[in-house]
């Protein structure tokens, strides 16, 4: 089959999937975990009663996700097919079929298109890796987004943070907010700032949270809160999912200041975490809505201690 016909077929299937996604007639499939998981977050959760009267958090950055706005207005396309340090198979490109704003509403779509039969190796597994022009920009605040993530074998979607260029990985730090892989509806909340051996054995914090509705049309709300004293480099970090405190961590000494960190949104294909499994031909989408940076957590800074106390310490790896 000529490539033009093949890719048009994939895009038609993707558009049909988008229609079904926008007007679902059935519930998405449940998780397919490879072992006994910790207790899941309920599909319908209510934020705790932390409301701070009279002091509502304010948005200080929110990208324009209107269908007529170019993705490049908010994000830079990081491109390449060199494995990205994890033996990944995708080719990150800036093609409009791999990243665009939905014509059906304010949403950012990142697509991985899989075509094993394509004669050009660079076109077999295309995807997008977006890096925000905007950094967190402040010593404390809250980054939030509502995300529908694909759940499929060999697929690895992520919503995460790295310091702005130039930076040194992993010493400068990495923050993972939404990360799921290989068909499991499990979120991996992570903080990395060292290698995985020798004296760096404990320089990671990770917590796994099953989210049965991770690929639901309404999406899942993710919040990352940071509070840093830039004069000392000390600070505290907290992660929430659908309003529920999940993980906390002290900001590691020597890592870059939080105001330097930028947003990354991508879908990887294969790679170490997928254990050599590759996805079937088709289209896999991450849908990002309500992306914003706030000057305070959802219930204000006076309630941060309550949020902190309700979080768990991340596990070492």
From TrEMBL:
GO terms for biological process: carbohydrate metabolic process. It comes from the Eukaryota. Residues 13-22 have a biased composition (Basic and acidic residues). The keyword Nuclease does not apply. It comes from Penicillium diatomitis. The keyword Membrane applies. It is a lipid-anchor; GPI-anchor. InterPro entries: Beta-glucanase-like (IPR000757), ConA-like_dom_sf (IPR013320), Glycosyl_Hydrlase_16 (IPR050546). CDD domains: GH16_laminarinase_like. PROSITE patterns: GH16_2. This is GH16 domain-containing protein. One of its GO terms (molecular function) is hydrolase activity, hydrolyzing O-glycosyl compounds. Residues 13-55 are annotated as: Disordered.
């Amino acid at each position: 089959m000529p490539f033009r016909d093949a890719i048009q077929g994939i895009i038609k299937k993707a558009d049909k999937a988008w229609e079904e996604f926008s007007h679902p007639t059935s519930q998405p499939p449940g998780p397919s975990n490879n072992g006994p998981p910790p207790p899941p977050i309920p599909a319908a959760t209510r934020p705790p009663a932390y409301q701070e009267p009279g002091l509502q958090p304010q948005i200080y950055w929110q990208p324009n996700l209107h269908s007529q706005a170019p993705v490049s207005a908010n994000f830079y396309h990081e491109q390449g097919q060199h494995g990205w340090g994890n033996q990944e198979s995708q080719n990150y490109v800036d093609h409009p079929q791999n990243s665009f704003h939905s014509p059906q509403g304010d949403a950012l779509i990142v697509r991985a298109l899989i075509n094993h039969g394509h004669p050009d190796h660079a076109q077999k597994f295309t995807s997008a890796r977006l890096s925000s022009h905007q950094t967190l920009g402040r010593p404390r605040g809250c980054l939030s987004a509502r995300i529908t993530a694909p759940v499929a074998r060999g697929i690895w979607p992520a919503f995460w943070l790295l310091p702005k260029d130039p930076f040194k990985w992993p010493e400068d730090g990495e923050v993972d907010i939404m990360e799921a892989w290989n068909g499991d509806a499990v979120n991996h909340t992570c903080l990395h700032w060292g290698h995985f051996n020798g004296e760096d054995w404990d320089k990671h914090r990770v917590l796994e949270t099953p989210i049965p509705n991770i690929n639901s049309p309404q999406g899942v709300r993710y919040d990352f809160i940071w509070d840093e004293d830039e004069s000392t480099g000390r600070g505290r970090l907290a992660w929430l999912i659908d309003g529920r405190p999940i993980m906390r961590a002290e900001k590691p000494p020597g890592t870059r200041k939080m105001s330097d960190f930028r947003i990354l949104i991508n879908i990887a294909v294969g790679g170490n975490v997928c254990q050599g499994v590759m996805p079937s031909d088709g289209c896999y989408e991450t849908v990002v809505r309500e992306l914003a940076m706030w000057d305070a957590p959802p219930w204000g800074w006076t309630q941060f201690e309550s949020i902190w106390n309700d979080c768990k310490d991340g596990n070492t790896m």
